[in-house]
Write the structure tokens for this entry.
Amino acid sequence: MLNIKNLSVSYGRKVALTVPKLSINKGEIIGVMGKSGSGKSTLVNSCLGLIPFKGQVRIDTNDVGILMQEQHYVDTMTNQKMIEGMLNTRIKRDKKLAELIDFFDFSSQLSLHFKNLSGGQKQRMSLIMVLYQEPELLFLDEMTTGLDFESRQALISQLKIYFKQHQTTVLMVTHYAQEIEALADKLLVIHDGQVKAFDEPQNLFKQYIGYSAFIVDNRTEKSIKVQQPEDEYKVARRLIDNGDDFRRTQSDIELVYTEVMKGQRS
Ligand SMILES: Nc1ncnc2c1ncn2[C@@H]1O[C@H](COP(=O)(O)OP(=O)(O)OP(=O)(O)O)[C@@H](O)[C@H]1O
């Protein structure tokens, strides 16, 4: 669905991003993580052709959607008028739109103005308009930044259902490991303009963390690395005997990310 070859983006003399090769298959959801200034937005912007770049970016569809962190709309009309105007349709007569509004629980916000919506409601409204166009490929750039925990959780679970139903291919940039854990098939870690890791979380977990790990919750939050199932049993036994509250994890994104970033220059 998206193929990148020898991509290089520079701002003036500074090379901000180089990606020798990257392929995203149809229906895959890719979560992109990296520090501020690492090149995440540069990746999205070059894929969208919004900035000049060298190399190849091939997108196998014309139905591309994008949702950035902040949206600005005119504020002279209600949300309903704006949605209907921008999509050139009427909610009453448009089953697809009515269903989306229902899905994102937006009916009671239709009579309001955009500026009076909460951050989560603003994101929902933008999503309704983006998803109405049934993009095959969707770019999400920090769509839940600034949302409170509950709004983020709600949005993530709605999107999880939606993406599954529609087999949308998604590249989402986020600072929240939890978002990737809930939605992404693969994790892409960018640091200093370079791809440091790109694979399914469980593969990266095996590579960077080991066979499995126990996180001792409540007390220490320390992770214990184990390489073999037998070791896992021994560690579990010890933790149980100590009365510790722990959980087993094989795809903890935060652990993987921390491990990938170890040894990288800041
Ligand atoms: N228009 C620009 N002109 C010059 N330098 C830029 C421009 N846009 C980005 N950069 C630089 O390129 C690098 C990558 O920026 P980018 O916006 O892609 O990072 P990011 O990972 O998306 O950061 P954040 O998480 O803060 O959004 C940074 O060093 C940034 O300062």
